[in-house]
Design a protein that fits this description.
Layout lengths: L7 E5 L2 H13 L4 E6 L19 E6 L5 H10 L1 H12 L5 E5 L6 E5 L6 E3 L6 E3 L18 H14 L3
Antiparallel strand pairs: 1-3, 2-3, 4-5, 6-7
Helix pairs in contact: 1-3
């Protein structure tokens, strides 16, 4: 929750959960505003009003300060069912995903089941990353500064120079 604004009633790093809680509170007669906070990058944008602990997250603010306590009580009383519904929504596969090709600029439509995969652009044949899904590979271990061919050349050069 926000450390400075008493109207903050819900914080999450899950957009589906935040949207669901906002919708649910609206159905209870409480108007809220959903605000997205972006993670600060390398200290850029730090001000007296933000700090290095800032992370990307969504925050719900009650529009009428008189409704804050009611909103907090409702969320606490119904937290189990809210959590279950938010998780269910987060696991929903989209029907279709539109992807703009970086090479030709055309848009391709793929079924939701293809999220997180690499496909061929139907217009130009280039590779397209279909966003979404779970990527289990830890990309932080990949050194993208040299290609595999360049690495092999460097290894060969080092071995030939080792003797003189």
């Amino acid at each position: 929750m926000s450390r400075t604004d008493p109207r903050s009633v819900f914080t999450s790093d899950n957009l589906s959960a935040a949207e669901f809680v906002a919708e649910w509170l609206g159905q209870q007669g409480i108007e809220v505003e959903l605000v997205t906070h972006m993670k600060e990058s390398d200290g850029v944008g730090l001000t007296p009003f933000s700090d290095s602990l800032s992370t990307s997250h969504m925050e719900l603010f009650v529009k009428n300060v008189d409704d804050v306590e009611t909103a907090k009580e409702l969320i606490l009383e119904n937290q189990e069912s809210i959590l279950q519904e938010a998780q269910k929504r987060d696991q929903t596969v989209p029907e279709n995903i539109a992807v703009a090709c970086e090479h030709c600029g055309e848009t391709a439509i793929f079924p939701g089941e293809m999220q997180g995969t690499v496909q061929d652009c139907p217009h130009c044949g280039e590779y397209l990353d279909v966003p979404g899904g779970e990527d289990e590979f830890d990309w932080s271990v990949v050194d993208e500064t040299l290609s595999e061919d360049e690495l092999a050349e460097n290894d060969a050069d080092e071995q030939s120079d080792a003797w003189g």
